[in-house]
Write a structure and sequence with these properties.
Blueprint (H helix, E strand, L loop, with lengths): L32 E3 L17 E4 L11 E9 L4 E10 L13 E8 L8 E2 L10 E9 L2 H4 L3 E8 L7 E9 L11 E4 L4 E3 L7 E9 L12 E11 L11 E8 L8 E2 L10 E11 L8 E8 L6 E8 L5 E2 L2 E2 L7 H12 L5 E6 L12
Antiparallel strand pairs: 1-2, 2-11, 3-4, 3-10, 4-7, 5-6, 5-8, 8-9, 12-13, 12-21, 13-16, 14-15, 14-17, 17-18, 19-20
This protein binds 2-acetamido-2-deoxy-beta-D-glucopyranose (NAG) (5 copies).
């Protein structure tokens, strides 16, 4: 039984833009990962807990990460705005090695980004490794929200013809940032941090909906139903050779009793099973949706023991349920986003294709 809880970083691209990271899900290729057990990043690991972290060296650019960004942060209470003052970059890598220059710009993200605030960018400065910007990137956000975010500042070379090249990033955990400190800082750029390929556990496509009114439950009047339509999985890890016999199990936490458990049938010899199975849970009031969490785990049914392949949890990811601190209320940004979409559109199916991650199953015996 794995006792590790991992928050999977979001690999989603940010739309049809020319940045090189917008190629969608990365091509997992072992050769592109280097073990970085001696990685000394101080803030960048804050969103990853208990996992081994490695560096994903960009596939197309042989650009070394070097240099830094000088900036200051300020929260302007009067405007309810977060200001990132980008002063300059120093000693950036040269994408045009012959002429020893790049066309750099700086981009910001607040992650995770459930409110969809998106990115901000400075202007592109041409033909320089030491660009001066003196630009403010602004976000209209509440302080409380900001304090739960990680600021991701990255430097890019804007390529006129090809793909933009990644020049490095800085991550700052804003929950521990002193917002009274508005001094300029010069911090070094670092390579991108991703989870190890072994943490790539395939994906699960599902749709969920909340029917507020139609419950057949007599116990809780005025309650509704949550429907979970498990559609299919893609690229499940082949942990057993030559193939696996997958099935999906569902719990609605905090209830881990037998009646909370539902399963799909077992599909034979496939890493891409199509389940097309709907599970129904009743007795939900709208306010329960903020406290409950749907745990879906994918298993390989073996004669002797069943193996956990991966899972996910749909909920608000607040760390709490009905006022109690719980470790399973740990949904990733993508998982929270799907759950929220369901809450915001009652009676409608909302669909998502979500990456499976390592979860410590609330209850992991086959019965
Ligand atoms: C490239 O330019 C930077 C300053 O812009 C300089 O410090 C560095 O030595 C140059 N490198 C080469 C290989 O010419
Ligand atoms: C930070 O932003 C850059 C640029 O958008 C992205 O490539 C990188 O994956 C982000 N880092 C994390 C940890 O999300
Ligand atoms: C990068 O260059 C392209 C083509 O010159 C341009 O269309 C694009 O807006 C630039 N990107 C940024 C981030 O400024
Ligand atoms: C920040 O400054 C405000 C007002 O100037 C003060 O009330 C607050 O205690 C300061 N916070 C910290 C962490 O120093
Ligand atoms: C899934 O099930 C529904 C009804 O239960 C059926 O209409 C549909 O054709 C099925 N889809 C697949 C891909 O099997």
């Amino acid at each position: 039984v794995l006792k590790v809880s991992v928050t999977v970083l979001s690999f989603k691209s940010d739309g049809g833009e020319s940045d090189s990271e917008s190629s969608g899900v990365p091509q997992w290729n072992n050769k592109q990962f280097t073990d970085l057990s001696n990685y000394s990043g101080s803030t960048s690991l804050s969103s990853v807990s208990g996992s081994v972290v490695s560096v994903y060296n960009s596939d197309y650019s042989s650009v070394d990460i070097q240099g830094g960004i000088q900036f200051s942060l300020n929260y302007v209470h009067k405007l309810r705005e977060f200001h990132i003052f980008v002063v300059q970059c120093q000693n950036l890598a040269a994408v045009d090695t012959k002429r020893n220059r790049s066309d750099p710009y700086v981009k910001s993200y607040l992650i995770p980004d459930p409110a969809n605030l998106g990115k901000r960018k400075t202007a592109v400065k041409k033909k320089t490794l030491n660009p001066t910007y003196n630009e403010i990137l602004r976000y209209r956000v509440r302080m409380e929200y900001l304090m739960s975010q990680v600021l991701n500042l990255s430097a890019w070379h804007n390529d006129t013809f090809g793909r933009n090249s990644f020049l490095g990033e800085i991550e700052l955990d804003l929950s521990s940032w002193d917002f009274n400190d508005t001094e300029w800082k010069l911090l070094p750029l670092k390579p991108r941090v991703y989870l190890q390929p072994s943490d790539f556990r395939g994906q699960l496509r599902l749709a969920i909906r909340f029917l507020p009114q139609i419950s057949h439950s007599k116990n809780i009047p005025g309650s509704g139903e949550v429907h979970i339509w498990v559609k299919d999985c893609k690229n499940l890890p082949l942990i057993r050779s030559p193939t696996i016999d997958p099935y999906v199990k569902c719990f609605v936490l905090p209830d881990i009793s037998k009646k909370s458990s539902q399963k799909t049938r077992v599909l034979k010899r496939t890493a891409n099973p199509i389940f097309n199975h709907t599970m129904v849970y009743d007795g939900f009031r709208a306010e329960d949706l903020k406290e409950a969490c749907v745990e879906l785990t994918v298993w390989d049914r073996d004669r002797l023991a069943n193996h956990l392949l991966g899972g996910l949890r749909l909920g608000m990811g607040t760390g709490k349920s009905y006022g109690v601190q719980v470790d399973w209320m740990d949904s990733t940004a993508e998982e929270v986003a799907l759950w929220r979409r369901m809450m915001e559109s009652p009676n409608e199916w909302v669909e998502g294709m979500l990456p499976l991650r390592m979860v410590t199953a609330a209850k992991n015996t086959w019965k």
